[in-house]
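In response to the reviewer comment on reproducibility (Comment 2.3), we provide here a single inverse folding case reported in full, input and output, so that an independent group could reproduce the run without further information from us. The structure tokens appear first.
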């Protein structure tokens, strides 16, 4: 009597965290008002988004924003960098995220916003597959934060006053005013903002446009008129650490390094030289994991942290919102890019978070 053999076909298990699909798209969004700093002017933002899908169905999104501070980062440059990164990771396991991110930095350190967007999409997909959120993954420290609102360096005081009044009506208690375009114009802009929102606390952002003595003169003049200044951000050139230290020693308010810091090594150098008494982390410069390392350097030095943004859409701003809520590290919050866009709908569940005026919280 013959034997009956049963033949089993081996089917390898489906790895749900394998990166199955990657898409890159360019999106253009007009701004509600022109965005003006000491570094230039623009009326729209052109960003590049990346979407990663895992085999299990989870999706993650990141967004690389163009910037006046990094004029070499054209949409075409960002798109090409993201497309190269996508081609390298298809079929890879997202659980190996640290190796993938380190490899991305090694191969694509410039443009940094492209790597940051890739990392955000990768970790967003991985945490979603795990049934959690980025905020929980980072510790779930806070349920709610309150942000300031940015007023550009407009030459028109009426525009500044109207924008400040609108912000106050919407509940914003702190205004970040772009300065660095000349003392008289800066002072008039501050006065116009205070007419529109007389009770608002102020943050002054030089965007590298001031001299060390000019920064102190502006600060003293603003305070002499009775304004409460919470922080002075990047008053002088990012490479002028001596000038930054000169201001930091004399300002009497926290002086934040923004453009001067994009890596943990730069943070250590800036703080060791006394060139700042606060640090602004922007994920577009550092990405999520390096952002954590910069935060560790700043916290070890005992200086307060600020979190900022570029010109991301509400969905593109989500990783920064989750990072800020999850860690709970930030004394100063400047996550307002979605408010500056010409859009009427507030962020909803598609963005992963919600806004109520200055208040931001998870959806």
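Designed residues, in position order:
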């Amino acid at each position: 009597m013959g034997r009956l053999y049963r033949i089993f076909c081996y089917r390898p298990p489906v790895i749900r965290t394998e990166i199955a699909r990657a898409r890159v798209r360019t999106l253009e969004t007009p701004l509600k008002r022109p965005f003006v700093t000491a570094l230039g002017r623009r009326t729209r933002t052109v960003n590049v988004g990346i979407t990663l899908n895992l085999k299990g169905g989870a999706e993650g999104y990141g967004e690389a924003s163009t910037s006046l501070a990094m004029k070499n980062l054209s949409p075409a440059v960002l798109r090409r960098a993201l497309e190269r990164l996508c081609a390298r990771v298809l079929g890879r396991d997202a659980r190996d995220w640290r190796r993938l991110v380190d490899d991305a930095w090694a191969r694509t350190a410039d443009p940094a916003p492209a790597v940051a967007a890739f990392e955000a999409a990768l970790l967003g997909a991985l945490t979603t597959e795990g049934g959690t959120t980025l905020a929980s993954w980072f510790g779930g420290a806070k349920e709610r934060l309150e942000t300031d609102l940015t007023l550009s360096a407009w030459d028109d005081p009426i525009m500044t006053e109207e924008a400040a009044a609108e912000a106050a009506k919407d509940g914003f208690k702190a205004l970040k005013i772009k300065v660095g375009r000349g003392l008289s114009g800066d002072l008039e802009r501050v006065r116009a903002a205070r007419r529109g929102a007389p009770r608002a606390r102020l943050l002054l952002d030089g965007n590298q446009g001031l001299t060390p003595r000019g920064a102190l003169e502006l600060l003293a003049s603003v305070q002499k008129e009775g304004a409460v200044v919470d922080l002075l951000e990047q008053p002088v050139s990012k490479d002028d650490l001596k000038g930054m230290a000169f201001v930091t020693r004399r300002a009497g308010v926290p002086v934040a390094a923004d453009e001067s810091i994009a890596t943990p090594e730069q943070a250590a150098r800036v703080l060791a030289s006394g060139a700042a008494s606060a640090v602004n982390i922007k994920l577009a410069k550092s990405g999520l994991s390096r952002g954590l390392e910069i935060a560790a350097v700043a916290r070890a030095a005992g200086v307060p942290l600020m979190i900022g943004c570029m010109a991301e859409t509400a969905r593109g701003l989500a990783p920064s919102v989750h990072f800020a809520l999850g860690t709970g590290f930030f004394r100063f919050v400047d996550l307002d890019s979605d408010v500056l866009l010409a859009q009427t709908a507030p962020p909803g569940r598609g963005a992963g978070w919600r806004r109520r005026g200055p208040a931001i919280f998870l959806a």
